[in-house]
């Protein structure tokens, strides 16, 4: 097993254990071709970190094409995992270690690796044809272009094939196991537990035991390669993180969101009907929920986005919890039905996992540019509440909150997730199911109108929610629809005064939704600059604020989870600071709303690169602003 | 081949009542606001008169409609109802029917609503065989928007939007439904109370999607579109009423019949020329929709040969029954243990 070429010390002499360096955090990026299994590799490494008790945060990054031309830059798929012995907030700005499985992966990612970073390269793919394909005139492994990095050249495919020579597996199948070799090597370097991965592989390939064994062998080969070659002088340890006590698991945003809906079904005691149409990056919510029919969940894969939401609304009309999941282009198609939900005042949860837009845009990349669509993207005055989770694990609570609002106020609710939250993962403190909120609703069972019949638009004076009688309730037969309703009776009404009243009532109902006050985190207690974000930018903003503090500057952080209505104290909070900075992955949509509503001239800092903010860029922006305010 | 009978009556699961019902029990307190002479009145009366015969609890009947003149229908029914958005009624009703097995769900739609803006939902609802009864009021014109041609208008139709004549080839709604393998397809004339009621009765008893096309006169924008089917001298020559198990015969004296022609198609012949034995005996239960499709193509939509009655009525498992069965199977197989789900397989514990 010494066939590999390595940039480190030659493997000679007796074995001695490498030195162990303790680190508080590490960022590793696995990068390869779409077909190289980098997502799986990263996911497994993440599970190992989770099993070890590190805090972690991940960022998958993959092309929209399922198999872009092999070996090309557009075909590069990567997975970044950040793990630490303390609570971290982001998947990391830059990798400390880059694993490049081919020249395309190297070319696409090397700019992100800081000088001195560790680069592990699969040399087998660095042949002329592949180098030419991505525009390398010369082999970067053979000139000094990588001199700034600690380069480890490993012939991963060759070694993997050698390790699997006796298995009877074809050369090509054997070569496909090289991602597990890479995982094994990294697992050795970082002292990761390996049992979980071996168990996972045996379960994943249970129906193909020879493939399972080959992957386990490749994984072990990578591990032993590190152990025996002495090519790696140092291994690293990242101790378990001191998180709040409790039992944790690793979870992605889409899974947490699906679990939140399962919990919502349990807590509301209502059946759930998810009407949906597959769309990136929201499809995993459908995949996940389709597995949980035992919780009374029906998943309906409709003929299009419109039918998906219509079926959900029809189910809600029947007294179920209707849910639809989509991304921005799907919300555009669902707009008219959301309007019908606003008019008929029926509960409906609309999940928008935002991606880069407009139009088809960047299906697999993240963005926060659907806020104004969620807020205003319908005809007429059509207010809907908006809830945005701030991290992958937070999607669970966000789903419960969206359901709570939908049921209590009888309204469609938009839940704005995004690609970073949906596909990213982090540890989740598993909640005690007994502590989950009660979401039960009372359906109308008696006539409530002055004429002794049922009036569907008689409102609860506290919440302004209308009475909800479901079909099958004797004596309460009534008709609802998209035409304007007479206040109270719900009959069709074209009366000018009635329309004026109903438009204002619908708005007042949404404006009156109870949302928690905004809390501000200001460790110094004397910050004059506030950073206000929403949604998935929570992590990078938080990490940036920590760094600003470390530099000795005071900055306050607050994060909006309720975008409509805003927390009652928001105006007061905004006015308490000399400057308010609003970083967003759009061109300033929240900033527009804040300026319009509160007349506060916030500083909008925006980015639309399809990638989350880096903490380092925000830290520089914030430091400059804080310095400016302090100097003034 | 005749389809297998799954033994599911159309209205199984919908609660019934012993209290006698009358047509007026199904009239809501809302003033009916269609134009005077509109065919919709006739259909409304027919439906209100027919429903009591089903003996269902009124609160377990729901009418869902889209947009268009006919889609005002639910407001006039003293049942539950939703007047929704253009073309989407089948999709909304699909969610409702899937969530609630105890409801008899009816969709009221028109040629524009069902075949233009809602064409996609219609065909997918039919192929899924959701337990819905779809009443498609076909007046071959857009009424609510004041007189543009519709997807069933005859070619060359001069309307406000087509002053030089329309260019579109029209849909034959029955052919379309059969192409989507609808399990029940029927047609009736608004003016034929008896025939309409019979098709409605069979549709109600059918478990699965039932599409009933109703030729309906718009007295304002397309008056007399179906008059040739109502004129005493013409009607008998043109209308071919189907009865399951009977030879297909029509004409004032029963002088015409339907016989097999080339490539699986059917054609009209004089009984005196072909003999009674050559007449096709109508079998609405044929699994292969080609036969019913051939029946729908006896003439173009010039109404020269207009088939009414039940073209096709076959048993096939419904989407909603199967969806509910999957939920029940899952419940029987696995406990709904939320705590176990949230924990998953791999956890770690941080001790204080």
How many E strands of chain B?
A: 12
Number of helices of chain B: 11
Unreliable spans of chain B are: 1-7
Largest protein interface, residues of each chain? A-B, 73 and 62 residues
Q: Which strand-content bin applies to the residues of chain A? A: 15-25%
Helix content of chain A: 25-40%
Strand content of chain B: 15-25%
Q: How helix-rich are the residues of chain B, as a percent range?
A: 25-40%
Q: Assign the structural class of chain A, choosing from mainly alpha, mainly beta, alpha/beta, alpha+beta, or little secondary structure.
A: alpha/beta
Radius of gyration of chain A: 27 Å
Structural class of chain B: alpha/beta
Q: Give the C-alpha Rg of chain B.
A: 23 Å
Largest sheet, spatial ordering of strands of chain A: 11-10-12-13-15-14-21
Q: Work out the helix count of chain A.
A: 20
How would you summarize what this structure contains?
Chain A has 632 residues and is of the alpha/beta class.
Features:
heterodimer; A: alpha/beta; globular; disordered N terminus; B: 352 residues; alpha/beta; 3-stranded antiparallel sheet
Task: Itemize the secondary structure elements and their pairings.
The complex is a heterodimer of chains A (632) and B (352).
Chain A lengths: L18 E5 L1 E9 L4 H15 L2 E7 L14 E9 L12 E4 L2 H7 L8 E5 L5 H6 L16 E5 L1 H8 L7 H5 L2 H12 L5 H10 L4 H21 L4 E5 L7 E7 H16 L3 E5 L6 H7 L7 E5 L3 H13 L3 E6 L1 H17 L3 E7 L16 H6 L9 E2 L6 H16 L2 E7 H5 L1 E5 L49 E3 L14 H16 L8 E2 L7 E6 L3 H13 L5 E5 L1 E3 L5 H6 L3 E6 L4 H10 L4 E4 L8 H17 L1
Parallel strand pairs in A: 1-8, 2-5, 5-6, 6-7, 10-11, 10-12, 12-13, 13-15, 14-15, 19-20, 19-22, 22-23
Antiparallel strand pairs in A: 2-4, 3-4, 9-16, 14-21, 18-20
Chain B lengths: L38 H12 L10 E5 L14 E4 L5 H11 L4 E7 H7 L1 H10 L4 E6 L34 H7 L4 E6 L3 H13 L4 E6 L16 H7 E3 L7 E2 L5 E5 L5 E5 H4 L15 H7 L9 E8 L5 H15 L4 H6 L4 E3 L2
Parallel strand pairs in B: 1-2, 1-3, 3-4, 4-6, 5-6, 7-11
Antiparallel strand pairs in B: 5-11, 8-9, 9-10
Helix pairs in contact in B: 1-6, 2-10, 3-4, 5-9
């Amino acid at each position: 097993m010494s066939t590999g070429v390595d940039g480190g010390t030659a493997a000679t002499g007796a074995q001695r254990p490498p030195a162990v360096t303790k680190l508080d955090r590490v960022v590793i990026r696995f990068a390869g071709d779409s077909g190289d299994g980098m997502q799986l590799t990263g996911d497994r490494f993440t599970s190992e970190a989770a099993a070890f008790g590190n805090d972690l945060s991940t960022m998958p990054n993959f092309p929209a094409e399922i198999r872009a031309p092999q070996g090309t830059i557009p075909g590069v798929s990567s997975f970044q995992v950040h793990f630490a012995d303390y609570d971290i907030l982001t998947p990391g700005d830059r990798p400390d270690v880059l694993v490049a499985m081919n020249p395309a992966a190297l070319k696409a990612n090397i700019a992100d690796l800081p000088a001195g970073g560790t680069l592990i390269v699969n040399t087998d793919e660095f042949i002329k044809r592949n180098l030419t394909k991505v525009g390398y005139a010369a082999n970067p492994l053979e000139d000094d272009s990588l001199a700034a990095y600690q380069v480890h050249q490993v012939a991963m495919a060759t070694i993997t094939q050698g390790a699997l020579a006796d298995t009877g597996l074809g050369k090509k199948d054997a070569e496909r196991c090289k991602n597990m070799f890479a995982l094994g090597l990294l697992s050795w370097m970082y002292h990761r537990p390996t049992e979980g991965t071996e168990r996972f592989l045996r379960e994943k390939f249970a129906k193909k035991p020879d493939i399972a064994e080959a992957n386990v062998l490749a994984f072990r080969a990578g591990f032993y390669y590190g152990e025996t070659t002495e090519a790696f002088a140092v291994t690293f340890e990242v101790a378990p993180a001191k998180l709040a006590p409790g039992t944790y698991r690793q979870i992605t945003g889409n899974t947490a969101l699906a679990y939140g809906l399962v919990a919502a079904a349990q807590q509301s005691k209502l059946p759930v009907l998810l009407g949906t149409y597959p769309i990136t990056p929201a499809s995993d919510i459908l995949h996940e929920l389709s597995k949980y029919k035992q919780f009374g969940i029906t998943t309906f894969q409709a003929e299009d986005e419109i039918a998906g939401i219509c079926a959900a609304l029809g189910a809600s009309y029947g007294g179920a919890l209707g849910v639809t999941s989509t991304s921005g282009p799907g919300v555009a198609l669902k707009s008219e039905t959301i309007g019908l939900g606003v008019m008929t005042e029926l509960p409906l949860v609309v999940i928008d996992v935002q991606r880069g837009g407009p139009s088809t845009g960047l299906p697999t990349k993240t963005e926060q540019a659907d806020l104004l669509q969620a807020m205003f993207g319908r005809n007429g005055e059509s207010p809907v509440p908006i809830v945005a989770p701030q991290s992958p694990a937070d999607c669970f609570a966000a789903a419960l909150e969206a359901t709570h609002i939908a049921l209590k106020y009888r309204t469609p609710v938009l839940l704005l997730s995004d690609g970073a939250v949906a596909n990213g993962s982090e540890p989740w403190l598993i909640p005690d199911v007994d502590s989950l909120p009660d979401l039960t609703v009372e359906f109308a069972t008696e006539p409530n109108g002055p004429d002794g019949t049922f009036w569907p638009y008689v409102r609860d004076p506290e919440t302004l929610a209308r009475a909800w009688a479901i079909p099958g309730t004797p004596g309460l037969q009534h008709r609802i629809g998209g035409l304007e309703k007479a206040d109270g009776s719900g009959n069709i009404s074209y009366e000018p005064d009635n329309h004026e009243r109903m438009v204002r009532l619908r708005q007042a109902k949404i404006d009156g939704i109870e949302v928690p006050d905004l809390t501000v985190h200001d460790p110094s207690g004397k910050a004059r600059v506030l950073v206000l974000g929403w949604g998935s930018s929570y992590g990078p903003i938080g990490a940036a604020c920590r760094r600003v503090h470390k530099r000795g500057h005071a900055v306050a952080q607050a994060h909006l989870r309720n975008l409509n209505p805003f927390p009652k104290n928001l105006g007061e909070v905004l006015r308490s600071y000399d400057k308010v900075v609003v970083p967003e992955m759009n061109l300033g949509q929240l900033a527009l709303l804040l300026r319009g509503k509160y007349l506060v001239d916030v500083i909008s800092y925006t980015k639309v690169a399809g990638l989350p903010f880096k903490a380092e860029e925000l830290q520089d922006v914030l430091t400059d602003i804080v310095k400016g305010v302090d100097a003034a | 081949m005749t389809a297998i009978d799954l033994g599911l009556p159309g209205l199984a699961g919908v609660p019934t009542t012993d209290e006698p019902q009358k047509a007026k029990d199904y009239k809501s307190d809302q003033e009916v606001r269609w134009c005077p002479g509109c065919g919709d009145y006739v259909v409304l009366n027919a439906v209100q008169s027919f429903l009591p015969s089903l003996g269902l609890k009124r609160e377990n009947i729901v009418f869902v409609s889209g947009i268009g003149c006919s889609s005002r229908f639910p407001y006039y029914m003293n049942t539950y109802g939703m007047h929704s958005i253009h073309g989407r009624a089948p999709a909304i009703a699909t969610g409702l029917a899937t969530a609630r097995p105890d409801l008899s769900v009816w969709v009221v739609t028109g040629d524009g609503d069902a075949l233009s803006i809602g064409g996609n939902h219609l065909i997918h609802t039919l192929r899924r065989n959701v337990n819905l009864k779809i009443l498609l009021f076909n007046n071959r014109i857009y009424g609510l928007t004041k007189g543009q041609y519709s997807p069933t208008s005859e070619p060359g139709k001069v309307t406000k939007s087509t002053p030089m004549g329309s260019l579109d080839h029209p849909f034959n709604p029955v052919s379309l439904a059969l192409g989507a393998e609808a399990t029940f397809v029927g047609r009736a004339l608004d003016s034929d109370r008896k025939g309409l009621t019979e098709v409605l009765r069979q549709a109600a008893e059918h478990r699965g999607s039932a599409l009933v096309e109703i030729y309906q006169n718009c007295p304002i924008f397309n008056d007399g579109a179906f008059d040739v089917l109502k004129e005493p001298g013409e009607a008998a020559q043109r209308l071919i009423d189907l009865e399951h198990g009977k030879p297909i015969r029509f004409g004032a004296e029963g002088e015409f019949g339907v016989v097999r022609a080339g490539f699986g198609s059917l054609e009209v012949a004089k009984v005196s020329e072909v003999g009674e034995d050559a007449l096709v005996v109508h079998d609405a239960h044929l699994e292969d929709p080609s036969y019913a499709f051939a029946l729908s193509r006896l003439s173009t939509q010039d109404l020269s040969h207009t088939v009414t009655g039940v073209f096709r009525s076959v048993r096939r498992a419904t989407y909603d029954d199967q969806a509910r069965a999957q939920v029940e199977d899952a419940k029987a197989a696995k406990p709904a243990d939320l705590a176990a789900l949230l924990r998953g397989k791999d956890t770690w514990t941080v001790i204080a």
